Amino acid sequence: MFDGKVALVTGAASGIGRKIAQLYAAHGAQVIVSDIAEEGGKETVRLINEPGGEAIFVRADVSKPSDCESLVQQTLNQFGHLDMACNNAGITGEQNRLADYSIDDWQRVIAINLSSVFYCMKYEIPAMMKAGGGSIVNMASILGLVAFKGAPAYVASKHGIIGLTASAAVEYGQENIRVNAVSPGFIRTPMIEEMEQDKEMYENLVSLHPIGRLGEPGEIAELVIWLSSDKASFITGAAYPADGGYLAH
User: Fold this and answer.
1) CA–CA separation, 64 vs 50, rounded Å?
2) What is the pLDDT of residues 177-196, one digit of tens each?
3) Out of 101, 154, 172, 246, which one is annotated catalytic?
4) What digits encode the pLDDT tens for the residues 61-90?
5) Which one of 8, 66, 169, 239 has the minimum C-beta count within 10 Å?
């Protein structure tokens, strides 16, 4: 499906990002695995290359515009073009009500979750224009569509991603660049798995999903791959929930 195409994934050292990178490669793409966590990123590359895929690791702190510019440039230097990108890097931040939320953490969450998506697209889009088009998938959240107590920065950043995605889609649709967002529910990543130690908290979290369980990283990756493919050729500017019924609850 992606033979001859190049895909870039940020936040690919673990969890959802790792699965997305692996699935791009499984469908034939050459993959740039990026993260601030070198050990995890290189492990993702190993998991792709050992079965016969092709991936390289590029360390980048996506909260820094210069790192995002360098990331795209290194992609072009290595593979010559860029066809697909999934801007997945993100953090949750502290848990606090708005008036008690620290300014430092607000700025950190907005920088890593939201500004990074702007920076990445700023450099990804010109590269895709040179390639004749492309597809970008930004990782939002169900909390980009509704609120959640104790996470004002995360909620604001994810709402911002959905707005930024729509803006880019409107501006670059005629350049053959599609831009969409994915809004996962709570997914069993290492971050969430830590919560399993608190049985009551974990069971309460599961209860918010009518399907009766949390999601798996691979289930989100499948949606990203579909949105990146020609099967979704008429879809742009959308935010797709993958949430086990959370928003319908």
Assistant:
1) 31
2) 999 999 999 998 876 776 67
3) 154
4) 999 999 999 999 999 999 999 999 999 999
5) 66
